Amino acid sequence: MLELIEKATTARSKTHRVMVGHVPIGGGNPIVVQSMTDTDTADIEKTTDQVKLLADAGSEIVRITVNNDHAAKAVPEIAKRLADLGCNVLLVGDFHFIGHRLLRDHPECTESLAKFRINPGNVGRGKRHDENFTAFIEIARDLGKPVRIGVNAGSLDQELLVQKMDENSRRANPMSGDDVEREALVESAIASASAAVDVGLAETSMIISCKVSRLGQMVEAYKTLSSLTNIPLHLGLTEAGMGQKGIVATTAALSVLLYGGIGDTIRSSLTPEVGGDRSKEVTLCQDILQALGIRTFRPSVTACPGCGRTTSTLFRELASDIQKQIDINLPDWKHRYPGSESLKVAVMGCVVNGPGESRAADIGISLPGSGESPRAPVFVDGERDRLLSGPTIAEEFIGMVNEYVDHRWGAKTG
């Protein structure tokens, strides 16, 4: 496991480092978690509130739509309000169709953004495409702003795709339509990056993405990209979907690539329920990185799934209570106990795997299972510390967890 993680880290260190505001992306730096608002950017209050929600959840960069003059005019005020709230998250402008004009006409907007995103598939056709793309890149170059060249299957340059399809039809053994589209996506990304370099934008000021909604196609596209360039890559399975389907698809796609050392920044494009919590896309990215051992964001609770030996619900209730307590304490712990995000707690349900898992955690409890008296040993730093019994086991163990955090990490804050 450690060897694979080290291999992945080594692969990522070969990418260029791009500075987005104060956040380094690529070059072996920590993988950055991004998110995007779904508000009308012209609605300053709603957009400010949602950006802060995402930032508070842990998003290090938040992308906002800049699709018209009203949105562009709102960006500076949004940035000001966030600063007044003490929210220093980096804002990225998502530009489509008329991005070159909006950047030119709204200099205050450009100053408030840490990075620009351009989709080369929707800036025009033929000569107009080249002129608009060049104008956009020239503005970014002159302002010293990094650019993400974001290619999407849903808005792929149709002239390029038709050309690739025609070439494929003349092959002795034609590829599938998905494979042709994948080739076109990669070619569009690489050609656009090359064109940006020709205009004078350094590779150290670029990030590339190649996002599609089909998992296999997305994974293969990024594998090809990573073999062709050292420009940092932003990963995402776009239009991942709702609920469990979206979570599973995103986790599968990102994990395959991240574990192979591909990817420098990520976003999960979940479709939230109406009125749902937008920040779930942030916590999913964090959970993926933490599960892979790449980054740590919050204490983890290991709990067994239950079986015929655990007919009592006590361990499930305790695991739930511990998780809720950690979630409540986390904002305070981040401030008072730096490093406590690495805390590992085990709440096990019976004597088979319980003692071993509890010893492996920082602090763990091994409940007896079914048909036994409620007496449970607690292990601290791998050693048996005490035996809890009776109806107050849950309250006593939660108290021990709080004491452990204070004892281990409290001294670091003086």
UniProtKB/TrEMBL annotation:
UniProt superkingdom: Eukaryota
User: Which GO-annotated molecular functions does the record name?
Assistant: 4 iron, 4 sulfur cluster binding; 4-hydroxy-3-methylbut-2-en-1-yl diphosphate synthase activity (ferredoxin); iron ion binding
Which coenzyme or cofactor does it need?
A: [4Fe-4S] cluster
Q: Which InterPro entries match?
A: Dihydropteroate_synth-like_sf, IspG_bac, IspG_bac-typ, IspG_C, IspG_TIM, NO2/SO3_Rdtase_4Fe4S_sf
Q: Which PANTHER family match?
A: 4-HYDROXY-3-METHYLBUT-2-EN-1-YL DIPHOSPHATE SYNTHASE, 4-HYDROXY-3-METHYLBUT-2-EN-1-YL DIPHOSPHATE SYNTHASE (FERREDOXIN), CHLOROPLASTIC
The IspG TIM-barrel domain covers which part of the protein? 15-285
Q: Name one GO biological process term.
A: terpenoid biosynthetic process
Kindly indicate where the leader peptide sits in this chain. none
Put simply, this protein is called 4-hydroxy-3-methylbut-2-en-1-yl diphosphate synthase (Flavodoxin)
A single Pfam family, by name?
GcpE
Coiled-coil annotation reads none
The answer to whether the entry has keyword Nucleotide-binding is: no
Its keywords, alphabetically, are:
4Fe-4S, Iron, Iron-sulfur, Isoprene biosynthesis, Metal-binding, Oxidoreductase
Q: Where is the IspG C-terminal domain?
A: 301-402
